[in-house]
């Protein structure tokens, strides 16, 4: 609880993954991937309850073994490639019997986020009286350098490049969501069905804690950072 507001953490973990099969329970430095998020949720000063939403019995068993609640199993229609993560959150909120003021999402694929990130972001949300917070990290490339490749092989810029400078200082600093933290007031999230709004505050994280595991290369990168 923070400043009288109750906090629920949801760890969403479906069983099927095409690019990296079974990734949510793959061992990272000796621990199943999902356990990294469970353990940091446990360390938080403010989280009142943390649960796993999954459709997979192996993931559920692993979560329970490490002390995390799995109060329900996610229905199959919310575990497909086309299922919306926002619908998964709304389903979890509807399934629980208790009311919470703040909901936060801890994706297992961001194992390097720390409990301090969770608590600092919650404090930022409270201090700024923000309805939502999303974690970001600095983008490696400015969008001015994004191109599509046409059928004839030619590059086409997404932005008009009147001045094609190679000096990064000529472009504004840009940030991208890193997948580690999503916070929102429950009533605000139910109304907007998204954490991304014009009122959302950014919580900036360093690149070494911003690895988002979607492929084998991402997994190896996280493993390398953990073993440094």
Walk me through what this model shows.
With 228 residues, the chain is of the alpha/beta class. It has a single domain, classed as Alpha-Beta Complex (Spore Coat Polysaccharide Biosynthesis Protein SpsA, Chain A), CATH 3.90.550. The protein is 27% helix and 21% strand. The chain is built from 6 helices and 10 strands; from the N terminus they run E-E-E-H-E-H-H-E-H-E-E-E-E-H-E-H. It has helices at residues 33-43, 57-65, 85-95, 115-127, 186-192, 216-226; strands at 7-12, 27-28, 31-32, 49-53, 102-105, 132-138, 147-149, 155-157, 175-185, 201-204. The protein has a 6-stranded mixed β-sheet with strand order 4-1-5-9-6-10, with helices on both faces. The protein has a two-stranded antiparallel ribbon with strand order 2-3. The chain has a two-stranded antiparallel sheet with strand order 7-8. The radius of gyration is 19 Å and the shape is globular. The model has no long low-confidence stretch (mean pLDDT 91).
Comma- or semicolon-separated keywords:
Spore Coat Polysaccharide Biosynthesis Protein SpsA, Chain A, about 230 residues, six-stranded mixed sheet, alpha/beta
Helix/strand/pairing category = alpha/beta
Order of H and E elements: EEEHEHHEHEEEEHEH
CATH domain topology: Spore Coat Polysaccharide Biosynthesis Protein SpsA, Chain A
Low-confidence stretches: none
Oligomerization state: single chain
In helices, the fraction of residues equals: 25-40%
Rg of Cα set: 19 Å
- CATH class placement: Alpha Beta
The shape is: globular
Amino- and carboxy-terminal Cα gap? 34 Å
Number of helices: 6
Write the CATH architecture name: Alpha-Beta Complex
Strand content: 15-25%
Number of strands: 10
Task: Determine the CATH superfamily.
Answer: Spore Coat Polysaccharide Biosynthesis Protein SpsA, Chain A
- Main beta-sheet strand count, sense and barrel state: 6 strands, mixed
Number of domains: 1
Average residue-wise pLDDT? 91
Strand order of the largest sheet: 4-1-5-9-6-10
């Amino acid at each position: 609880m923070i400043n009288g507001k109750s906090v629920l953490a949801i760890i969403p973990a479906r069983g099927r993954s095409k690019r990296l099969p079974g990734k949510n329970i793959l061992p990272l430095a000796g621990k199943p991937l999902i356990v990294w998020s469970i353990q940091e949720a446990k360390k938080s000063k403010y989280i009142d309850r943390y649960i796993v939403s999954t459709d997979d019995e192996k993931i559920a068993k692993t979560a329970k073994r490490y002390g995390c609640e799995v109060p329900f199993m996610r229905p199959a229609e919310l575990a497909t490639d086309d299922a919306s993560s926002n619908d998964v959150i709304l389903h979890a909120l509807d399934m629980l019997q208790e009311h919470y003021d703040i909901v936060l999402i801890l994706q297992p694929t961001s194992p390097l986020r720390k409990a301090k990130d969770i608590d600092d972001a919650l404090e930022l949300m409270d201090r700024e009286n923000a309805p939502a917070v999303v974690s970001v990290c600095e983008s490696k490339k400015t969008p001015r350098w994004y191109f599509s490749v046409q059928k004839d092989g030619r590059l086409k810029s997404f932005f008009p490049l009147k001045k094609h400078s190679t000096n990064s200082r000529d472009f504004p600093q840009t940030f991208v969501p890193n997948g580690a933290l999503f916070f929102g007031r429950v009533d605000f999230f139910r109304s907007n069905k998204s954490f991304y709004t014009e009122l959302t505050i950014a919580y900036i994280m360093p690149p070494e804690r911003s690895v988002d595991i979607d492929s084998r290369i991402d997994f190896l990168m996280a493993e390398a950072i953990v073993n440094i």
